[in-house]
């Protein structure tokens, strides 16, 4: 057997080993994330769990925890990212059911504000509180998730005549997530009237071609 053949065999065995290890690591991370979310949800904003509490709930070990996360803050950041991706997938699925662009925007708003439901909002508050920087996640600064969810709006905004759909989508998303924060932290949910007004606001952020200002720049300041 020549060296090339033995190298091919070695490579295949190594790839199988890596695949098994990758699957095992994925399972370890998911158990830690799920356990952390459950522990934080149970404690709410009363107390922050320690790494030991999360590891115990996951049936794992400190060695496993630190194999994947540098610190508890890193795990909380992963929880926020995981939640954002779940919301993105849900909203994208809802929007895909609606053929009209204004209907897609309406679905986007309703999907985002599904996070104000009592059970979801309580979990979100707990995770953000554990991040130790809630004001940086939702509020005066760009809200967590707003940039990712904004990626769903340029398509319908473009169909509705936006001259700069990415900019208009970002503006609508930042405003929407700012308002979302108000509801999440107050433990309230928007009324149907609130949702209609927010949807109408998002649609009004669309600046059509030819209405960008005297300089022709869609970002140019407009005289009041």
Please describe what this structure looks like.
The protein has 224 residues and is mostly helical. It has 2 domains: 1-69; 73-224, Tetracycline Repressor, domain 2, CATH 1.10.357. Helix content is 70%, strand content 0%. The protein contains 11 helices and no strands. It has helices at residues 3-43, 51-58, 62-68, 72-96, 101-112, 118-131, 134-137, 146-150, 154-159, 165-186, 192-204. Helix 1 packs across helix 6 and helix 10 (165-186) packs antiparallel against helix 11 (192-204). The longest helix is centred in the first third of the chain and has 41 residues, at 3-43. It is flat, with a radius of gyration of 23 Å. The N and C termini lie far apart (82 Å).
Largest sheet: none
Stated plainly, the CATH topology of the largest domain is called: Tetracycline Repressor, domain 2
The overall pLDDT, averaged over residues, is 85
> What structural category do the secondary elements indicate?
mainly alpha
Number of strands: 0
The low-confidence runs, each spanning 5 or more residues with pLDDT under 50, are 133-142, 220-224
Shape: flat
CATH class of the largest domain: Mainly Alpha
Percentage of residues in helical conformation: over 70%
> How many H/I helices?
11
Order of helices and strands: HHHHHHHHHHH
What's the gyration radius in Å?
A: 23 Å
Structural domain tally: 2
CATH architecture field of the largest domain = Orthogonal Bundle
Q: How widely separated are the two ends?
A: 82 Å
